[in-house]
User: Which sequence fits this backbone?
């Protein structure tokens, strides 16, 4: 558990890199002195490197810079991670207090012309007389991974403003600092607005239709608050069952309105309104692009991605709209007709869609998601997940002990076929107060070679699933299971790397629009009978998932896939237009959202919907002008999985090839080269459409 500020350890745990993060010794008071010391040490290292009169080499330039930067990144990564998973006023103040200084330090480093010149010289010389130079870290002896690292660094120097004149460099720094501060505030506002809302139901009749476990969790939440009734919040395990099962439509409407107005001018607390932050973030990104000589921020974003231009991305998204909207419209028409004919609902509002969809699913396929959920207890799901990975990649997962930030967090060793530990990871699976919503993977430690020793990678894997209630284990919906597999795919990309250079090991250096390939690829296994047999048992009877129920799940696999498909395209187009042809000073983000919805959406949103105000991926995270990556990488992942369908989904040989050519290579070569090395050709879109049940007629 995280200590209070007055429980300081003798040594600042953020400065200890000899072991895993020392969460039990951490206090928010450690942040400022540790980060300031590490920035000072890194500055000294840079000065020492630049003072070296010898010709620049990998060993006298890149290695010492990597050493210093890694320490700062690891320490700051711990602070950022804790700020997301155990947020508190003291920790938030410490994080936000140091964020401008950290941003300033990294920006100044990326603009260091002398260091930039040394990197360029090393890269230029690395291509000369390579065959005559031993692989000793100098000139032509550089490995492919080292050359790729240098290529990325040189690109990032340019994107960081290294070639700008002094006045523009200064402005670039100011813009970067303000952006980092505003993005952090955006996330804080969403978290605060989410945490602040709760609704107490005191009439049991209003709970009609809700699953018993959701009712029990709401009762337990109310009891913890010392109130009578049932407490519902905007955290996913509480919110989603209401929207899907609650027959009492005023409850659905109340919860929906609160959810979609979070952190907006329509929310309960105007201090958390993200309207102004969105406009300012977009203005600053546009200014940053102009400083660098780009037409818009999307061009800046795509400079480090697979896609070549914003026009190419928009064309890709519009092509998918043309191929999927007809299916989405059919889904919507079926839903409306069912609501009228079977539920006597003359009008369908957005807060009714989840409820009607579940009723339609049960009517059409004779099962409910809650029925399926009873077979997916936490222990069985995790065992099934690990069975898949062990089967195709030949690695094992061994529970072990480590300091964590919460008692619910688990820790595992990743062991290769020869029994050697190759990585470790943390599992933080349950939703709780003061934890950021959503699911994600992040790096704690990256693989690199330090002398004769290889430092193994360590990952954080974080979700927001329902915790156990009473004496029952945590139960996951099938969607939860898919999310778990998704994040584990990211984790495997980090953990199974075989690259020893820090800048391109694991997910480092992987193009952002390819980083979702391993995660979306893993989702496919959640639909395989051989897999589900190993990971299901009824929570009460212990019986495995019946084949008849599985067949119904498969029949319903692409239920409303069209609606889900265009919703993601809507988000991606909103993102791209916001960062290409949108004037944040003259237009309103909601006006843009409405224009995109008119083009793409089939569900009519209410006037009060403020989805952009909680769109953390692009306004508070790393997906700005990059949300399209989910669909871009889905093309890759669907095609990659087709290779497993062709050979057998748990085929060890195919798995070994995917591990060797994609996961192990990390960012050490372009993602397209890795895909082609695995698949033998470039990706094709047909498998994506087939997996979504939208194969066009010939």
Assistant:
């Amino acid at each position: 558990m995280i200590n209070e500020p007055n429980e300081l350890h003798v040594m600042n745990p953020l400065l200890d890199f000899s072991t895993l993060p020392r969460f039990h010794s951490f206090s928010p008071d450690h942040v400022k002195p540790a980060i300031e010391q590490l920035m000072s040490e890194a500055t000294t290292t840079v000065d020492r490197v630049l003072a070296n009169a010898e010709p620049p080499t990998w060993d006298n330039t890149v290695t010492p810079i990597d050493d210093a930067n890694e320490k700062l990144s690891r320490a700051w990564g711990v602070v950022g991670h804790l700020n997301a998973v155990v947020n508190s006023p003291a920790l938030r103040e410490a994080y936000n207090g140091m964020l401008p200084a950290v941003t300033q330090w990294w920006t100044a480093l990326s603009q260091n012309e002398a260091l930039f010149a040394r990197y360029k010289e090393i890269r230029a010389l690395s291509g000369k007389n390579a065959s005559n130079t031993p692989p000793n870290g100098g000139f032509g002896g550089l490995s492919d991974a080292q050359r790729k690292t240098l290529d990325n660094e040189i690109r990032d120097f340019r994107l960081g403003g290294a070639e700008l004149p002094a006045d523009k460099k200064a402005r670039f720094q100011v813009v970067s600092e303000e952006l980092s501060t505003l993005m952090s505030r955006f996330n804080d506002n969403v978290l605060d607005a989410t945490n602040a809302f709760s609704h107490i139901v005191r009439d049991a009749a209003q709970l009609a239709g809700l699953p018993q476990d959701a009712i029990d969790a709401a009762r337990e939440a109310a009891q913890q608050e010392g109130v009578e009734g049932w407490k519902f919040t905007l955290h996913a395990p509480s919110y989603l069952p209401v929207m899907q099962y609650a027959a009492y439509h005023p409850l659905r409407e109340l919860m929906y309105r609160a959810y979609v107005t979070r952190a907006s001018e329509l929310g309960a607390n105007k201090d958390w309104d993200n309207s102004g932050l969105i406009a300012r973030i977009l203005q600053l990104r546009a200014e940053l692009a102009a400083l660098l000589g780009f037409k818009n921020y999307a061009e800046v974003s795509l400079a480090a991605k697979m896609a070549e231009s914003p026009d190419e991305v928009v064309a890709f998204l519009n092509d998918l709209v043309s191929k999927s909207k007809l299916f989405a419209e059919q889904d919507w028409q079926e839903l409306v007709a069912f609501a009228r004919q079977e539920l006597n609902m003359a009008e369908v509002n957005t807060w009714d869609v989840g409820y009607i969809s579940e009723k339609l699913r049960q009517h059409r396929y004779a099962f409910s998601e809650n029925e399926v959920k009873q077979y997916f207890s936490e222990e069985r799901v995790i065992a099934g997940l690990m069975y898949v990975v062990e089967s195709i990649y030949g690695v094992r997962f061994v529970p072990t002990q480590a300091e964590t930030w919460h008692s619910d967090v688990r820790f595992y060793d990743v062991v290769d076929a020869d029994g050697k530990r190759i990585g470790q990871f943390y599992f933080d699976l349950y939703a709780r107060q003061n934890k950021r919503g959503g699911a994600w993977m992040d790096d704690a430690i990256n693989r690199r070679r330090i002398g004769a020793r290889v430092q193994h990678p360590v990952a954080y894997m974080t979700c927001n699933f329902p915790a156990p209630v009473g004496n029952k284990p945590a139960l996951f919906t099938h969607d939860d299971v898919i999310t778990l597999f998704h994040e584990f795919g990211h984790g495997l990309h980090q953990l199974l790397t075989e690259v020893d250079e820090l800048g391109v090991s694991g997910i480092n250096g992987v193009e952002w629009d390819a980083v979702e390939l391993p995660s979306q690829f893993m989702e496919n296994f959640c639909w395989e009978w051989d897999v589900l047999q190993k990971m299901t048992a009824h929570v009460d009877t212990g019986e495995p998932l019946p084949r008849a129920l599985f067949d119904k799940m498969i029949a319903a696999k692409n239920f409303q896939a069209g609606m889900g498909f265009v919703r993601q395209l809507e988000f991606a187009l909103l993102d791209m237009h916001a960062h290409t042809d949108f004037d944040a000073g003259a237009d309103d983000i909601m006006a843009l959202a409405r224009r995109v919805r008119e083009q793409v959406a089939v569900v009519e949103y209410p006037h009060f919907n403020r989805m952009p105000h909680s769109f953390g991926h692009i306004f508070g995270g790393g997906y700005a002008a990059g949300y399209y990556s989910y669909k871009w990488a889905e093309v890759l992942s669907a095609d990659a999985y087709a290779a497993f369908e062709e050979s057998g989904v748990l085929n060890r040989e195919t798995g070994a090839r995917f591990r060797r050519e994609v996961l192990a290579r990390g960012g050490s070569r372009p993602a397209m080269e890795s895909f082609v090395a695995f698949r033998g050709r470039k990706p094709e879109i047909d498998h994506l459409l087939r997996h979504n049940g939208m194969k066009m007629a010939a």
Observations:
- The beta strands are 198-201, 230-233, 396-399, 410-415, 421-430, 440-445, 448-450, 453-455, 458-465.
- Residues 340 and 463 are 37 Å apart (CA to CA).
- The radius of gyration is 25 Å.
- The longest strand covers residues 421-430.
